[in-house]
Amino acid sequence: MDTELILRVSPFFIEAAWMTIKLSILTAILGLTCGALGAAARLSRLAVLRWIAAIYVSVFRGTPALIQIFILYFGGPQIGIQLDSFSAGTIALGVNIGAYMTETIRGAILSVDKGQTEAARTLGMSRWETMRKVVLPQAARMMIRPLGVNISAMIKGTALIAPISVVELTYTAQRFIGSTYKPFEMFLLSGILYMIIIYVVGQGISLLDRRARIT
Amino acid sequence: MGLDFTVVPDYFGALLMGAGWTVAITICAGLLSFFGGIVFAVIALYGHWALRLPVRAFAFLFMGTPLLLQLFLIYFGLIEVGIDLPAFAAGVIGLGLHFAVYNSELIQASIPAVDKGQYEGARTLGLSRGQTLRRIVIPQAVRAVIPPMGNNMIALLKDSALVSVIGVMELNLSAQQAISRTYRPFEFYLAAAFCYYIINLALEAGLRHLERRIAASR
């Protein structure tokens, strides 16, 4: 283990970790938005919306995220979408994780006891009121943990943005493996940073989950 | 530059070949992840501490880091210690070990759920500890987690696109080669995505069939 080298390169890795954090935050926001919209569409009364959402989920979960990133970044200019690698990576990964989150959110909503909906409707609440006041508050508690699993998978997934040259953790590790020929050190350095990020996010989600349970 | 899909059929053979390699990698890595998962699970639960600790540390490290990073470690790390594996083998090992860790977690959770009476019954009948594990406990524990392991297999198929970065000539890299000659990334990546989607559908159908058969045999 070459500790002197590790100390020398670690500032680059810290900076790269910050980029991974930024990518993760933006991707998570976009993913949650797509997931919420997707779930709403999947549970919609309009058949067209249900169909569109089902196709969205099937296509984005049925093909590799890396290919989706490549289509947007390299193929985008051909159809008039010119994006820098950071935006292309974030958007492609966010829409991709949104497909997984669609199913997570939909599952949580469907897991709310049907009797709750029936009772609320019998009491004269509208469909929308029932959803907003009865179903969603209960579903929200149930989706925190599975969405947390989606998010920690997504944080590791941000490594897929490395091949389009966004200088995040995996890209930095790859570059330093190439220049120093020290794969184990570089792996450990970036691996530890990934695990710290995932650990902190995981703790935050557990906290949120515990709070949601108490109230 | 608009879209022109007429160039895609010219590279049909190359893409098909790439798809074949993707299927081959998925099968090889899938088998490695299946058997590796069982071995890791048994070591993690019953192994001597000198084996158990490294396996647990390895699992911890591989669950917490991205697959792409692990592929770089295995490919360049093996070269560093003097083992120059072909890219295909390195890709299979990387993918296989990554998913073996996830399968191992599933099996580890499932082994204690096998009825204790099964274990006691086998021991009473004179089977050794190892025989009981191998013939009675593990087959039942593995069968119980076939559906989630199937999900891992589907994830493995899609993640096999990553081994292109260490130079394995599979579907993604075949598309990239066609692109470097035609400068038509949109068309070829879309064609590759289409191939992945078809393979994915076939794999899902196969897994559903397997699950039904297992459910029926119970």
TrEMBL record, chain A:
It is found in: Cell inner membrane; Cell membrane. It is a multi-pass membrane protein. GO terms for molecular function: transmembrane transporter activity. The chain crosses the membrane at residues 20-41, 53-75, 81-101, 147-166, 186-208. This is Nickel transporter. Pfam families: BPD_transp_1. Residues 17-205 form the ABC transmembrane type-1 domain. GO terms for biological process: amino acid transport. Gene3D superfamilies: MetI-like (1.10.3720.10). Its main location: membrane. One of its GO terms (cellular component) is ATP-binding cassette (ABC) transporter complex. CDD domains: TM_PBP2. Belongs to the binding-protein-dependent transport system permease family. HisMQ subfamily. InterPro entries: AA_ABC_transptr_permease_3TM, ArtM/GltK/GlnP/TcyL/YhdX-like, MetI-like, MetI-like_sf. Keywords: Amino-acid transport, Cell membrane, Membrane, Transmembrane, Transmembrane helix, Transport. Signal peptide: none annotated.
From TrEMBL, chain B:
Coiled coil: none annotated. It is found in: Cell inner membrane; Cell membrane. Residues 19-207 form the ABC transmembrane type-1 domain. InterPro entries: AA_ABC_transptr_permease_3TM (IPR010065), ArtM/GltK/GlnP/TcyL/YhdX-like (IPR043429), MetI-like (IPR000515), MetI-like_sf (IPR035906). It holds the Pfam family BPD_transp_1. Belongs to the binding-protein-dependent transport system permease family. HisMQ subfamily. This is Amino acid ABC transporter permease. It comes from Puniceibacterium antarcticum. The lineage of its organism: Bacteria, Pseudomonadati, Pseudomonadota, Alphaproteobacteria, Rhodobacterales.
